[in-house]
Amino acid sequence: MSMSFDRYMKDMIQPMRDELTGLGIKELRTPEEVEMHLQDAPGTTLVVVNSVCGCAAGQCRPGVALALNNDLVPDHLFTVFAGQDKEATAKAREYFAPYPPSSPSIAVLKDGELVHFIERHQIEDRSAQEIAEDLTEAFDRLCR
User: Fold this and answer.
1) How many other CB atoms are found less than 10 A from the CB of residue 118?
2) Phi and psi for 134 in degrees, rounded to 5?
3) Of the candidates 64, 70, 75, which has an alpha carbon nearest to the alpha carbon of residue 37?
4) For the segment 78-135, what is each residue's pLDDT rounded down to a tens digit?
């Protein structure tokens, strides 16, 4: 019995998607969805660029989960999946200039403008707790 590559990838990736959507983070799967939700979005917006890599599993997603327990959190919570929803991810990255593409990564926007960004190299060498502390500091400063 053979399984298509697309079906295999969907089955393998779904738990990684669920880890964020289970926190109430909405997936943006198309460039149109990204534009609709990020362009000039009022208030604060969190965008997690999800990934299949080990640092996404061990540090990024758990760090985001911890940070969302903070009293102050962004008004809007979104994620795109690098390597899976390529066009949506490319569109989201347009909002993260001047930073180069990085996955995983975490962006906070205020009124549609990038105000805080955590790049992959700032995720790889830090614990989930350290990432959560970075995010909660940003949330406390920006989400008032």
Assistant:
1) 24
2) -60, -45
3) 75
4) 999 999 999 999 999 999 999 999 999 999 999 999 999 999 999 999 999 999 999 9
Q: Could you write out the three-class secondary structure of 108-135? A: EEECCEEEEEECCHHHHCCCHHHHHHHH
Cα-Cα-Cα-Cα dihedral sign, residues 18, 81, 60, 96: negative
| Cα–Cα distance, 46 to 115 (Å, whole number) | 10
Helices assigned H by DSSP within the chain: 5-21, 31-38, 54-55, 61-67, 86-93, 121-124, 128-142
Rounded CA-CA distance 108/90 in Å is: 17
Cis peptide bond prior to 100, omega within 30° of 0: no
Helical (H) or strand (E) element with 77: strand 76-81
pTM metric for this prediction: 0.94
Q: Which positions are annotated as active-site residues?
A: 53, 55
